[in-house]
Amino acid sequence: MMMIYGMFVFELKTLPYQQLQQSINWRHVKNDRINRSAKWQYIGAGEAQITLNGVLYPEVTGSDVSLAVLTTQAYTGRPWPLISGVGQIYGMYVLTGLQTTHAEFDRYGNAKKIEFSISFQRCDEDLRERLQASSVGDLLSGLKDKAESAYNTVSSTVSNLF
User: Fold this and answer.
1) Helices (H), ranges, the chain
2) Is the pLDDT of residue 2 over 80?
3) Is the domain of 119 the same as that of 151?
4) pLDDT of residue 44
5) Are residues 118 and 146 in the same domain?
6) pTM given for the model
7) E strand or H helix that includes residue 103
8) pLDDT tens profile 112-150
């Protein structure tokens, strides 16, 4: 299994993709100030998109049926979990686009080669968004205090020895 999207499994016999592109954005706004340089403010996570590109050879791997199943799943309009074959959970995604190019036809009009590109858009919140600057700052401050305390303890122990 290469990846699973809801109930659809990407593998060699369904839709083996050859390329996975991931795009993640974070939103910042610029606040202009009088007689000072502009100040930038982080306003949250932006869009996350995954695109799978590949080539199907129906006589060898996959078929039009796999594309039809995936298209039907997209028509539900529901978000589905997207999980890689190694267990990485990307999150909840909706299928936003499917492009296919059929080529090299046999005498019955069946394509022997189908190039595809599938676009997914994330529609849930990433758990990492809950990390805020203040909580990270508090964490770092706590680590600094513990490090200083440990240093002082070791320093006083060493000075007592000599």
Assistant:
1) 64-75, 133-161
2) yes
3) no
4) 86
5) no
6) 0.72
7) strand 89-105
8) 999 999 999 999 877 666 666 556 667 677 778 888 887
Query: Hey, what amino acid is at 104?
Result: E
Q: Whole-angstrom Cα distance, residue 15 to residue 63?
A: 8
What are phi and psi for residue 86, nearest 5 degrees? -95, 5
pLDDT tens, position by position, 58-73: 888 878 899 999 999 9
Do 139 and 70 sit in the same domain of this protein? no
Task: Tally DSSP H helices, then E strands, for the chain.
Answer: 2, 7
Residue 124 shares a structural domain with residue 147: no
Domain boundaries, position 82 = 3-130
46 with 113, same domain: the answer is yes
How far, CA to CA in Å, does 70 sit from each of 5, 12, 87, 107, 111? Answer: 9, 15, 21, 27, 18
Domain count, the chain: 2
Which of 1, 107, 116 has the alpha carbon at shortest distance from 63? Answer: 116
